[in-house]
Design the sequence.
């Protein structure tokens, strides 16, 4: 034992970890992980219509914007140093097959064209899923009361190609259909989009933390739940299989979602893979900090910075978060 070899006094002197924490400058010098604005991605809700900026009740500080209002909002993000956004479309009308997801005049392709012309260097990512566009709110096309994997893939491929055509830098399939990455990669290659980045929502859990998003996107399933395609919160080995297969199918970046309840999954993925890993700190993670800090129960800035730092520490390269703008401001103030 160390104590026997060195004697009690030396052990105590040698193990004074508090020496490492004595001053702010020392703590800063020894920081193992640093948040930087360049790893933050801001989710943005874009809706049909004109002159609308509509706050989301369950997500204070977050609004849905019509395309004409989007530039100002994104301008505020770029002013504080945010260089990438992830777009979600909210159409006025929905149908059984979610055809709005691949309409060239849908909110997302229009938003991509607008943002790319206003901010050519902005990284524009687009979520690829049918749930915001289907009348039943499921992430794919129904057949016999359940979501048909095979019938959904071509629609996802069409939507991704449409967004790439509009100029998106990254397409992000989030429907959790088997083979969606391969189907999209093939469609992109066939339509001349070999350079398109693909970020797979690889390990996407069937989570209660999506609640506020479904309010924002009006995309709650009208019957049943998403447990038949999204992952069980109990499983992490299965998440590795999802990630493995997305990489094999041609994903450039893989994602774990939500982030905070699944830090172990991020960390496990980090130790197994060398691909870039994104973590999506979802709507419920945002709203729970917002709600409790509004009541004075949590310090908002401290809690949000701590959560983002923990996601980084777990091994994520990219953090998709509704706190992006605020984090960017706070990070500037710390400099
Ligand atoms: C599906 C999608 C969802 C989220 C992102 N993409 C909702 C769902 O699966 O129900 C949730 C994001 C969040 O909660 O912030 N298109």
Sequence:
């Amino acid at each position: 034992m160390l104590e026997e070899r060195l004697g009690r006094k030396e052990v105590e002197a040698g193990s004074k970890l508090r020496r490492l924490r004595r001053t702010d400058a020392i703590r800063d010098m020894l920081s193992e992980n640093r948040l930087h604005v360049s790893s933050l991605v801001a989710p943005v809700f874009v809706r049909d219509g004109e002159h609308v900026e509509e706050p989301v009740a369950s997500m204070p500080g977050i609004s849905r914007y019509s395309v004409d209002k989007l530039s100002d909002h994104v301008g505020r993000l770029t002013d504080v140093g945010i260089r990438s956004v992830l777009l979600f479309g909210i159409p006025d009308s929905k149908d059984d097959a979610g055809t709005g997801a691949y309409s060239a005049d849908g909110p997302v392709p229009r938003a991509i064209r607008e943002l790319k012309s206003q901010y050519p260097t902005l990284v524009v990512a687009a979520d690829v899923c049918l749930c915001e566009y289907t009348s039943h709110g499921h992430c794919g096309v129904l057949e016999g009361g359940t979501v048909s994997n095979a019938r959904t893939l071509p629609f996802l491929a069409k939507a991704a190609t449409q967004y790439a055509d509009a100029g998106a830098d990254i397409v992000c399939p989030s429907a959790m259909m088997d083979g969606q990455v391969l189907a999209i990669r093939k469609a992109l290659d066939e339509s001349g989009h070999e350079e398109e980045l693909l970020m797979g929502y690889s390990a996407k859990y069937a989570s209660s933390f999506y609640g506020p998003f479904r309010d924002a996107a009006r995309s709650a399933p009208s019957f049943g739940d998403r447990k038949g395609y999204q992952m069980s919160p109990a499983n992490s080995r299965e998440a590795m299989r999802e990630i493995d297969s997305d990489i094999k199918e041609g994903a450039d970046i893989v994602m774990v979602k939500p982030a905070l309840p699944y830090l172990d999954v991020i960390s496990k993925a980090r130790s197994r893979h060398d691909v870039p890993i994104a973590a999506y700190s979802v709507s419920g993670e945002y709203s729970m900090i917002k709600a409790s800090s509004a009541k004075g129960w949590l310090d908002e800035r401290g809690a949000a910075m701590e959560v983002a730092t923990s996601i980084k520490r777990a091994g994520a390269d990219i953090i998709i978060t509704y706190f992006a703008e605020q984090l960017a401001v706070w990070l500037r103030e710390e400099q």
The mean pLDDT is 95. The chain has 13 helices and twelve strands.
